Every structure is written in C-alpha cells, then in structure tokens.
Fold this sequence. Notes:
By secondary structure, the chain is an alpha/beta fold.
Amino acid sequence: xxxxxxxxxxxxxxxxxxxxxxxxxxxxxxxxxxxxxxxxxxxxxxxxxxxxxxxxxxxxxxxxxxxxxxxxxxxxxxxxxxxxxxxxxxxxxxxxxxxxxxxxxxxxxxxxxxxxxxxxxxxxxxxxxxxxxxxxxxxxxxxxxxxxxxxxxxxxxxxxxxxxxxxxxxxxxxxxxxxxxxxxxxx
Length: 187
C-alpha cells in the first residue's frame, strides 16, 4: 500500500510540475482542482508535515485545510504553504493540534512522511552513484542505506583511507543528518 501511495504521489508531482502552462486557461472547478493538486504536492514534499493527516479542499480559490498536525508550528506552516500558492486567494486553516502528540524520535514512525522517505531514497541512490564514480573506492563492496536522514555504511573496504573517504562523502551529502560506520577494513 505504501509503495502504491508513493508511486501515486510521484506521478501526481510529476504531472503538476510538467504541465503548469495548462493552468492559466483553466477556470472554475478545473482551476480549483489544479490548485488543490498544487497544494497537496507542496504539503507532500515538505519534510516537516505529514501530508496524509492533512485534508485540503479548494473552492473558488479559497483553500480549506482540515485534519490534524502535531503542533502549532506545523499548523502555521501548512497555512503559509497554502497562502504562497499562486491562485489561492484565501486560506481557512481548520487544522487541529494533536494534544497527545508523541515525539517521533522516540516513537515507532510507521507513518513516515512521503517527503522524508523520498529524501532517504534519493540520498541512498545519489550517494551510491557518488561512491561508484570515485576512483579510490570499490563501491560495489559498500552497502548504503538511509533512514530518517541517517546513512548506514556497511561492507568491506581495503584500508582506513577508503573508510574515511566513504564516511566523509556520506557526511557531506545533502539531507544527511548522521552517518553510522559499519565498514570493515580487510587488509
């Protein structure tokens, strides 16, 4: 189910990005649908919000946000995102703040946001490509995985220099929060 949701979100985002010229000629319900798609995509790609808990509706250019967020800052952020979309004339922010919010750092994060998952996937893929392109590394021996911005490097390297290089490359990659070194040096 999560894979289907991710695929649908990617398809939606791609469609919205690829066809902006059409929106200028849309009117009425079609324009509202276009704006709703832009708003949904903007919320989806924001790493601070869980888009699956926020419902959006657009009527005559007025965005209505409903659902639940974890704190007042997220409520304000969602409203600001909506206000900044060209074509939305007003925002009714009916989001409620979850009083029983648990810190996601200590809780099982089964409903990880799409954008966080997207960033993790792109970090893993991009870092694998960078490692493979580097002449001093045998990238096929290094396994890269990313979870919530934490990159884990596993596998075998020939020496400490290769280990240090792989770790530094991972630390310098965009959206990386931390690096776990599980590399083994095999002299």
